[in-house]
Amino acid sequence: MLDGKDKHYIMNGGSNRERQPDIKERIGVRNKKYFFKEQYINESNAFCKYFEAIQHNGYIQNIIDEVDNMGDFCDLYTDVPKNYQADQINLYYEPMSVSEGSAEILYASHALDIRESADRGRKLVANKSIGKGKILINEIPTVLQVSPMCKCVGERYCLYRCHNCGKACKLFYVCDGCNVCIFCSRVCLYQAYKNYHRYECYGLQRHFWSMEDTDYSYLALRMMLYGATKQFDTQPVIGGVYGHVENNYPFIYTLESNFHQMMLPRVNKILYSVARNLVYLIRKTNFFHQYKDKNFNMQDFYLYVGGLMVKHYCQAQNNNILLKYPNMTQGFGLNVVSGTGKAICPTIALLNHSCTPNATILICSEFVVVKSIRTIRKGEEITICYSEVDALLRVNERHIITEEIFHFTCCCSFCTYEKNLAIAPYKCPQCAVGNAKQVDSKSGKTVGYCFKCLRSVPMNDIFDNFKIAKICRNVYNVTYSIEHLTRIAECYKVIFHENSLPLLDVYRLLYEKHYLWGEKPIEVVRYGLLLFRILEYNMSRLYLPILTAKVKLFSQVVEMKKFSEVRDLNDEEFDIIKTFVGEVVNVKRDLLFYLPSDKCLFYSPIQTKVQMMFQRVSLQSNDDQAQA
Ligand SMILES: C[S@@+](CC[C@H](N)C(=O)[O-])C[C@H]1O[C@@H](n2cnc3c(N)ncnc32)[C@H](O)[C@@H]1O
């Protein structure tokens, strides 16, 4: 439990931690002109300066023209069927809820606490051991952006979700004004209209806002409008609870924006989008009329609202949750999802990113649910993998994504592990458990140091294998032969630990080569299984990209004609197939983590086919299971 000053800081989100850009590092790497610290102190100040500048040099006229000459009303909306089926969205999941709610954090389980760390800011940690598959948070989004279902926006965005509460709706009410927003009930329609929709309706009709994944101006506007309905009250209710059902604005207001980590071109894009929003609000809506008789300086108030929208834009970029579904019925592709919008959930926004997460987000009708994907120890931080980051990429590639999209450099345990690999990458030749590094190479002998044995170890064997691997790699680069790749894998098995990432790269290549060119189908299974063993060791079995890739592997094996020719298996091959059949059965259980049982039915034909293909093996597996 937190107390006193610490608790105040953390709950209020402000904390005494003011993130400052790492000036030396940035200026060292990038051109100085991109750095803006001297120019802008914070989001509000940035917007004031920008707005003053565009007013001064006349550029504002371009924005006014753009707003005044918005396109025509889009005819296609009139084609939207008014009684469209809910497209199974609500039926996707059973309702889920946390077993016992926290008294300190809205929507969270009592097993979670808020803490703060110097490198990552606020975080949620487990205050007791948590099992796999437990519901940790079950949150109703505070602000929601549902992508409109207009056909000119594209099929990808088609969605039958209430734009106010997020519920999927079987029959819906379409707003008569814009014909874009749909609502599940008259109550939602009325609420939305009163709180925000009357200000956005005109722009929505004319595609004023881009619904692209990288544009947050529409969501920023909605966040500001939510604030306006709460009189822009940013003071949390006394009582020290994080989050408030009636007024979550104080908790939105303090979400991480990473404004000071952004480069000038990005900031300029945001300022421009917000200036557009502001001009739109002034010229096309009566949003500001309600404040006119309150004796404030309207010019200052415009700038205040603009500053708020800049802040919310940056926050939306860092904290939004993509409303998407695991959609494994379509081609079993990696990350095959149907994107439908973005949500701001202040409690879930406390979760930091990890490239080897211990929890995942599921969208369950109008709820956003966080579920543990492995056992979490007491005191361990709860982490998710941010949806734009593909944890299957290598560390440098992942860092490009986190830096470009979220403006932070990931310092999770997996990134640290991958970086440490560079320091002591080898398997100790003495104990075969510890990590060793080379320390010396004299008179034909290579000596290393093992961090487990805590002493020097001979490394000649390792370096002999390195030499062979290097030669094989050179030959492979010319011939692309499977034999040389196999030889590299054998050398790597001596040099590195069996679940290490260098081996993963070689197995991935071997799998692809065998799948495309190989004569022996059993090798596809062998390397496919090895690949997933390493991935699951480093990440988790219940990790959606891994699961979908695995289902893809199984379906590929089923499709391989050559398997029908496999008759006589030797003992080793028999074992491989036995493991494979076991995995095919197990994956069904893993799928149930993400989908209700009727949605896993698509998987049954694969299971049946595999069991028929390898009848002898599956019979024996069944016997083994019965004995066990
Ligand atoms: C959704 S918020 C998470 C909560 C945040 N720590 C806070 O105090 O509000 C995302 C921000 O947390 C920080 N963060 C999250 N994961 C991180 C990681 N793995 N490494 C470094 N910073 C991280 C970044 O500043 C990121 O923009």
Give the neighbour order of strands across the main sheet: 13-14-15-16
Number of helices: 19
Largest β sheet strand count, sense and barrel closure: 4 strands, antiparallel
Number of strands: 16
Principal-axis shape: globular
Radius of gyration: 28 Å
Structural category: alpha+beta
Q: What's the overall average pLDDT, rounded?
A: 83
Q: Which segments are poorly predicted (pLDDT under 50) over 5 or more consecutive residues? A: 5-11, 13-36, 83-91, 330-337
Ends apart, CA distance between termini:
45 Å
Portion in helices: 40-55%
Q: Strand portion, in percent?
A: 5-15%
Identify every distinct bound molecule in the structure, by name, code or SMILES.
S-adenosylmethionine
Explain how this protein is built.
The chain has 628 residues and is of the alpha+beta class. Helices cover 43% and strands 11% of the residues. Among the domains are: 1-69 and 217-237 and 250-319, no CATH class; 427-495, no CATH class; 511-628. The chain is built from 19 helices and 16 strands. The relative contact order is 0.09. Bound molecules: S-adenosylmethionine. S-adenosylmethionine binds at residues 120-123, 255-256, 258, 318-319, 349-350, 352-354, 406, 408, 410-412.
